[in-house]
Design brief:
GO molecular function: calcium ion binding; calcium-dependent phospholipid binding; phosphatidylserine binding
Number of strands: 0
Helix content: over 70%
Strand content: under 5%
Order of helices and strands: HHHHHHHHHHHHHHHHHHHH
Structural class: mainly alpha
Protein name: Annexin
GO cellular component, one term: plasma membrane
Pfam families: Annexin (PF00191)
Keywords: Acetylation, Annexin, Calcium, Calcium/phospholipid-binding, Cytoplasmic vesicle, Phosphoprotein, Repeat
């Protein structure tokens, strides 16, 4: 996946110089938003952390605090997200999704089904360090039923169990768990979809298609509902293609009346250094329009300009 991001580390990088550019952009009357967004979207996250440290050394102030003081609205949210280290951004998103009244299931589903096994381990450790809490306990305390059960399995790091050669057995189990009998055995769906490596899941899907005559997603749509259905679909889609999953997530964040800015920001920031070029290609393929034109039509102002810089090009 290396090099598939739209944002890359700057070649001739000088943290002190960048810190000065940002300081000048915020000094005096008015703020130079253009300079801020152009600089931050053309530096990698680790370079942004170095700029933050240099800013503190040179000016004795917290860069993120100053940015928050100068900027506002969705543009501010986007810039603060860009300044947050990736793992910390994930754990903060998860914490915000869990705490308070109600659970933002969308965030739990997106992060836990799309991150790699190593990232899930790092997220769990960082969550404990940051909030002095156990992520699994927080998730189980805030969710219920089969939905909770699958989230816990995903948290316990996917793809660890053996059974790579048994896709035939699993496709039969899934078929009898779903379509073949009246009622659905969600437990079977959960155990098989939650515990297998990506390569293995793809083989299971192909075998299932042969046996049942339709895709796994169709079966999930018909046989399950609510949060569990959304989570199972996300797991299947991410096993097939993570960039295509995010292309679809972005599409639905902007579809219809109103924009789900939280999701739009989260995906654009968290994938900008990972696979944004692939997401753009999949967006074009799946929705017959470019991600660039969707953002252009759905957002405005500095927020739009910054998102388009993260998008990094138009595939019209």
């Amino acid at each position: 996946m290396a090099g598939r991001g739209s944002v890359r580390a700057s070649g001739n990088f000088n943290a002190n110089q960048d810190a000065e550019i940002l300081y000048k952009a915020m000094k005096g009357l008015g703020t130079d938003e253009d300079s801020i967004m152009k600089l931050l979207t053309s530096r990698s996250n680790s370079q942004r952390q170095q700029i933050k440290a240099a800013y503190k050394t040179l000016h004795g102030k917290d860069l993120v605090g100053d940015l928050k003081g100068e900027l506002g609205g969705k543009f501010e949210t986007l810039v603060v997200a860009l300044m947050t280290p990736p793992i910390l951004y994930d754990v903060t998103s998860l914490r915000n999704a869990i705490k308070g009244a109600g659970t933002d299931e969308k965030v739990l589903i997106e992060i836990l089904s799309s991150r790699t096994a190593q990232q899930i381990k790092d997220i769990t450790a960082a969550y404990r360090q940051e909030f002095n809490k156990n992520l699994e306990e927080d998730v189980t305390g805030d969710t219920s039923g089969h939905f909770r059960r699958l989230l816990v399995i995903l948290l316990q790091v996917r793809g660890q169990r053996s059974g790579e050669h048994r896709s035939g057995i699993y496709r039969c189990t899934l078929f009898s768990a779903g379509e073949k009998k009246f009622g659905t055995d969600e437990e079977q769906f959960i155990t098989i979809l939650g515990n297998r490596s990506t390569e293995h899941l793809r083989r299971v899907f192909a075998a299932y298609m042969k046996l049942a005559g339709y895709e796994m997603e169709e079966s999930i749509q018909r046989e399950t509902s609510g949060g569990l259905r959304d989570l199972l679909l996300a797991v299947v889609k991410c096993a097939r293609s993570v960039p295509a999953y995010f292309a679809e997530t972005l599409y639905y964040s902007m579809k219809g009346a109103g924009t789900d800015d939280q999701t739009l920001i989260r995906v654009m920031v968290s994938r900008s250094e990972v696979d944004m070029l692939d997401i753009r290609a999949d967006y074009r393929r799946l929705f017959a329009k470019s991600l660039h034109s969707a953002i252009q039509g759905d957002t405005s102002g500095d927020y739009r300009k910054a998102l388009l810089l993260l998008c990094g090009g138009n595939d019209a």
